[in-house]
Structure of Hsp20/alpha crystallin family protein:
Amino acid sequence: MKLIKDKEFLKNIAHQIDLLNTLGGGISETYVDIKKYKKGAVINVWAAGVSSELFKVVLHNNQLTLFSVLHHPDNPEMAAPMFNRTFILPPQVDLSRIEAVHEDGQLQVKLPYFEGTQQPREIEIKKL
């Protein structure tokens, strides 16, 4: 059996097969894990073959949407969604301090809580 030695050809054909597989109903295996801590929460997303450039993190009001889209390198109009997940954030999350980091194939979104909101506080009801 003869092996194809043109690495650029193999890379291009593999990308096209992946794109067509996704368009044809294939899926990119994605794993999401949420961990809660005293000072905040962390959303970890692992998606095989998804680089940091393909991930998008969008915050609108208290909704955080994480998604990735696979584009064809020669035709940017040809694209397929690989992952999409929306989270409703609780009121204790400080929306202005949310951070996203991509490292070793993992997207990590840090959701820090407002300072001093760790303990619930009962509000006194006044009679008028």
In short: The chain is about 15% helix and 40% strand. Helices lie at 7-23. The CA atoms of residues 62 and 89 lie 5 Å apart.
